[in-house]
Amino acid sequence: MISQRTLTMITHRSIEEGIAMEKGKQSREYFDACSVIEMNDLDMLRMGIEEDSPVRVVSECGEVVVTAIIGIQELPPGMCHIRQGVWANQIVPIRTQSTGVPQYSGFPVTVTPAPELQVRSARDLICESVGMWREDGENS
After folding, report:
1. What string of H, E and C letters represents the secondary structure of 55-124?
2. pTM over 0.85
């Protein structure tokens, strides 16, 4: 069993994200739709990742904990997908390759099972990204 593996990440809009965004980015629907990584079932098996369990995803510019699910769309081995949104934005490289648009797809990430970690809320991730404190007084 391989405990971590480098995969090729793609991020893009999805119907699930669009529907959930209408409820608001702090809604349970948005959290459930966007805080997931879709993976190939064989990759999950090889890495000992169970469906609906947390994984750490690390790119060259950041990391995020998301919930692993078997791809709703067909994903070949070695490829994974996070729907565009707060969680994907934590790992999207800032380089634009002169297009003015960040590289949302085709960048390497390392995925590691992380059953001891929790998926953080959109609010916590945003607060941490901009250096804000949470309302409960804890530094996010």
Report:
1. EEEECCCCEEEEEEEECCCCCCCCEEEEECCHHHHCCCCCCCCCCCCCCCEEEEEEEEECCCCCCCCHHH
2. yes
